[in-house]
Design a protein that fits this description.
4 helices, NE0471 N-terminal domain-like, three-stranded antiparallel sheet, alpha+beta
C-alpha cells in the first residue's frame, strides 16, 4: 500500500495535492473529494444505499486532521467532517479519478441534479 510523502491544500484552486512513496502524485479537487467521501452519509451502509452529492462545486476544505498513521479526516465548509480517507482510498481516488469523475457527472445528469445546487 502506498503511503503519502506530502499532502498540500491549495485554497485558491480548491485542490489537494498528494504525493505517494511509489512516485505517484495526484491533484484532487475538494469537490471530487467531498462527493467521494468514504462516510456512511455518502456511501450508505451497503450497496445501493449511496446518496448522490449535489451542489458541491464550491466546497472548501477548512482543515485536515491525521487519523493515526493511516488516514486523514478533512472538515469541509458544508459541515461534512465524518469521512476518514485511508491512504489506499486516497491513492485509488487519484488512480481512478477520470472514471470516477465521469461516472459522477453521468449520475448528476441522470438525476437531473447539478454541481451548483
Amino acid at each position: 500500500m502506498p503511503n503519502p510523502t506530502e499532502i498540500r491544500l491549495h485554497a485558491a484552486s480548491r485542490q489537494m495535492e498528494i504525493h505517494f512513496d511509489d512516485d505517484s502524485s495526484f491533484t484532487l479537487s475538494y469537490e471530487f473529494l467531498r462527493v467521494h467521501s468514504p462516510s456512511a452519509e455518502v456511501r450508505g451502509h451497503g450497496p445501493g444505499q449511496e446518496t448522490l452529492q449535489t451542489g458541491k462545486r464550491k466546497v472548501d476544505i477548512l482543515s485536515v486532521e491525521p487519523v493515526g498513521s493511516y488516514a486523514i479526516q478533512p472538515r469541509f465548509s458544508d459541515g461534512h467532517s465524518t469521512g476518514i480517507y485511508a491512504w489506499d482510498y486516497l491513492h485509488s481516488l487519484g488512480r481512478d479519478h477520470d472514471k470516477l469523475w465521469a461516472d459522477y457527472l453521468e449520475k448528476l445528469v441522470d438525476a437531473g441534479a447539478s454541481r451548483d445546487v
